[in-house]
């Protein structure tokens, strides 16, 4: 005898991909799970353990469901209390899930008292009307679950096992462009149209391929809608980029929007740990180092800059090592049945002071040593509703009095009026010690990776914050960022990597 578990939509051939159903092979006490991933691909697996491992507490309570006398059984799964009501009056066995298949015919399940599934009809039919599904081959259970899970969303590979290093021998090929002696990799990616309400995530993994130090990393998109783009600077040198000046005597290339130029749109800011994987041979008592660091971030608010477009996406890690770092970068698109939060329809990059062309002469973000700081003028052709500034900030200057280790207030002004201020600071860096095998150890018992920093830790991503700006009228506006940047100490200096994107409807 065989029991099939399916849904009404599958029976009526109206199911949305991916979908699955299960058959209970009672002779062998096994579950055959089958899934249709798309029109052309089906997979299956055989689970010979799950039914046999089920244990229940058989209780004395009884009640009637649909006129049948039912008994009660209880079990606990993953801290969930499951109560099952089943009948033996029909001389058949089955259930709406694999749970309780051998008890009788399950007519009700109750999970934690707040999720109840109750039968509304027991019907005998002459023919089972589902579409026959045949899988190419049976997979092991873990592979089956993994393929089914991945089929529920779209994965867009950007970089796979690419090395970001500092070497004169780093060269571009047909798919991966390399700039600034190999410290920047770039690729053109086609993004499909993204269904309204979908969630978009960026995933990055990093391992040391030789470099022992914590480094600034960034995944970015190059806006191409203006006359000049950052790609011009990559291909022709930093002199091809517009210059920002604030009176401190330096020239900052390509970090602020102009009438005919948009700066890099930063998707993720991340920081490498001290030598993960490459230096895992360093042994310390009770320390088992992680093999890689994984960064994952929701970037759904940037949908309008990605959906249905061909875009240049790049990754930068500042380093001076021939081995450098090894990275993987993916985008994943996850459809939602309901629109929970409306995504901004306008994504306008305003500034980005991270000098990703550091190894090609781009100036560090030292512009905040002037009281003027950073001022960006932008023009809106129409009113912008619910405007927000997506702001990423991190302080740098790696010595005792440098801004990396000294809290500094960030102040943001809209049209010369202060609208927000905060002091970016991370105090949880010690939580990531196992990602940092090559971190220096000090006489006070701390490691370098333990120390609190200006909004970053070695081995973490720096999350954006969102500054509410209200409704902005069409016309010209200014955004200003002020930070009391620390003074130079000999050859050491402080700098700030800040990026800002205007979002709205």
The major sheet is characterized as: 6 strands, antiparallel
Largest beta sheet: strand ordering: 12-13-20-15-18-27
Cα-atom radius of gyration: 29 Å
Overall shape = elongated
**C-alpha termini separation:** 59 Å
Task: Compute the average pLDDT.
Answer: 94
Number of strands: 30
Structure class: mainly beta
Strand content: 35-45%
Task: Describe the model.
The chain has 505 residues and is mainly beta. It has helices spanning 8-11, 141-150, 230-236; strands at 2-5, 19-25, 30-38, 41-47, 57-65, 68-77, 80-87, 105-111, 115-118, 138-139, 154-164, 177-179, 184-190, 199-208, 216-222, 243-244, 252-253, 265-271, 293-298, 310-317, 325-334, 346-352, 374-380, 384-396, 410-414, 417-422, 461-462, 465-472, 475-482, 495-504. The strands form 7 sheets. The protein has a 6-stranded antiparallel sheet with strand order 12-13-20-15-18-27, covered by helices on one side. A hairpin with a 4-residue loop joins β2 (19-25) and β3. It is elongated and about 90 Å long. 37% of the residues are buried.
Keyphrases for this structure?
single chain, 505 residues, mainly beta, six-stranded antiparallel sheet, five-stranded mixed sheet
How would the blueprint of this fold be written?
Layout: E1 2-5, H1 8-11, E2 19-25, E3 30-38, E4 41-47, E5 57-65, E6 68-77, E7 80-87, E8 105-111, E9 115-118, E10 138-139, H2 141-150, E11 154-164, E12 177-179, E13 184-190, E14 199-208, E15 216-222, H3 230-236, E16 243-244, E17 252-253, E18 265-271, E19 293-298, E20 310-317, E21 325-334, E22 346-352, E23 374-380, E24 384-396, E25 410-414, E26 417-422, E27 461-462, E28 465-472, E29 475-482, E30 495-504
Parallel strand pairs: 4-10
Antiparallel strand pairs: 1-2, 2-3, 3-4, 5-6, 6-7, 7-8, 8-9, 11-21, 12-13, 13-20, 14-19, 14-21, 15-18, 15-20, 16-17, 18-27, 22-30, 23-29, 24-28, 24-30, 25-26, 25-29
């Amino acid at each position: 005898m065989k029991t099939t578990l399916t849904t009404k939509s599958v029976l009526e051939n109206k199911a949305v991909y991916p979908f699955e159903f299960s058959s209970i092979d009672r002779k062998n006490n096994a579950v055959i799970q089958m899934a249709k991933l798309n029109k052309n691909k089906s997979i299956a697996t055989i689970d010979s353990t799950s039914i046999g491992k089920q244990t229940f507490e058989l209780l004395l309570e009884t009640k009637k469901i649909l006129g049948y006398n039912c008994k009660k059984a209880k079990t606990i799964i993953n801290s969930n209390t499951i109560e099952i009501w089943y009948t033996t009056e029909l001389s058949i066995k089955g259930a709406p899930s694999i749970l309780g298949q051998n008890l009788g015919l399950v007519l009700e399940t109750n999970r934690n008292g707040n999720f109840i599934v109750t039968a509304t009809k027991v019907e005998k039919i002459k023919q089972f009307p589902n579409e026959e599904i045949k899988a190419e081959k049976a997979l092991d259970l873990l592979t089956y679950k993994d393929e089914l899970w991945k089929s529920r969303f779209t994965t867009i590979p950007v970089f796979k096992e690419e090395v970001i290093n500092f070497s004169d021998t780093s060269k571009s090929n047909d798919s991966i462009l390399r700039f600034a002696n190999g410290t920047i990799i770039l690729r053109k990616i086609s993004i499909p149209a993204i269904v309204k309400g979908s969630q978009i995530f960026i995933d990055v993994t990093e391992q040391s391929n030789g470099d022992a130090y914590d480094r600034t990393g960034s995944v970015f998109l190059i806006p191409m809608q203006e006359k000049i783009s950052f790609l011009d600077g990559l291909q022709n040198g930093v002199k091809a980029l517009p210059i920002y000046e604030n009176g401190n005597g330096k020239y900052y290339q390509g970090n602020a929007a102009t009438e005919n130029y948009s700066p890099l749109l930063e998707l993720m800011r991340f920081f490498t740990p001290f030598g993960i994987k490459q230096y895992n041979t360093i042994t310390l008592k009770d320390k088992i180092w992680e093999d890689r660091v994984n960064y994952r971030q929701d970037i759904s608010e940037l949908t309008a800059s990605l959906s249905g477009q061909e875009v240049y996406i790049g990754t930068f890690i500042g380093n001076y090592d021939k081995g450098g770092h090894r990275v993987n970068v993916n985008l994943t698109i996850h459809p939602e049945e309901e629109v929970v939060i409306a995504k901004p329809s306008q994504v306008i990059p305003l500034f980005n002071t991270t000098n990703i062309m550091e190894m090609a002469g781009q100036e560090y973000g030292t512009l905040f040593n002037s009281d003027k700081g950073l001022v960006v003028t932008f023009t809106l052709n129409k009113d912008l509703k619910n405007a927000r500034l997506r702001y990423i900030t991190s302080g740098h200057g790696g010595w005792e009095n440098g801004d990396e280790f000294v809290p500094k207030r960030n102040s943001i002004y809209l049209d010369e009026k202060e609208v927000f201020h905060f002091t970016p600071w991370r105090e949880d860096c010690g939580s990531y010690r196992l990602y940092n095998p090559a971190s220096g150890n000090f006489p006070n018992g701390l490691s370098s990776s333990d120390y609190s920093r200006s909004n970053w830790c070695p081995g973490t991503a720096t999350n954006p914050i969102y500054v509410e700006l209200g409704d902005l009228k069409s016309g010209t506006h200014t955004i200003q960022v002020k930070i009391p940047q620390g003074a130079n100490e000999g050859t050491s200096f402080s700098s700030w990597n800040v990026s800002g994107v205007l979002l709205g409807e």
